[in-house]
Amino acid sequence: MTTAGRDPGLQPERTRLAWRRTTLSCTVVALLAVRQALHGGAGPAAIVAVSLSALAWLGFLRVAHLRVLGMGTARPRLLSARGALTAAACTVALAVFATAMLF
Amino acid sequence: MNEFVQGLRLWFAPERIREEGDTPDYRFSLANERTFLAWIRTALALIGGGFAVDQFLPELAWGVRAGLALALLAAGVLCALRAVNHWVRCERAMRRGEDLPVSRFPTLLALAVAVVAVAMVVVVLFGWEGR
Q1: What is the mean pLDDT of residues B64-78?
Q2: Interface list for chain A against chain B, based on CB atoms closer than 8 Å
Q3: ipTM at complex level
Q4: Distance CA A18, CA B110 (A)
């Protein structure tokens, strides 16, 4: 990170912190999903549900981590649409698991 | 409708965004990205609320509980999908030098959250327990 070309609004830092906040929110939801899955005991269905929730969480974590690394430069590149789609897809996946576990 | 399909195509072929207009100041793109993340957090909060209704209100009748949880989860899914759509549209508008897109989605979301809140108040006041 160069100090000369850094913008005074600290946009990359703010964006990095926004990714971190979002990852933390995702972690809370994933933990709720695991709690829900293990509610009825640890049967085979529960193991599958826990694994799928962990997968969605890891997918989100990967996108966020790559993006946080990308924020290390003074002039970060545009967020890729694939990254945005993956983040949204992991969010939707958690909602779908929640719906599935309702029944 | 045509514009919606066009936007949907942009979701999966992001390099097309770069074909038109000029690259905006990177700070504007980052601000757009933060707005996207804020919407994703809203979606995650709604989904977390759906989980919470199901897990922490066991004395509610099943129908009421499932209805509330489904409403919150559906709102969360819509919010996440709309976050991507809005991000793409804002990015494109900035490249073309157009006005940023306006939307009635925040109003609809606020109304949906208000309905869920009123439903909770009714449930608490009249105690629809699982009998």
Answers
A1: 90
A2: 7, 9, 11-12, 14-15, 18-19, 21-22, 25-26, 28-29, 32-33, 35-36, 39, 75-82, 84-85, 87-88, 91-92, 94-96, 98-99, 101-103
A3: 0.84
A4: 22
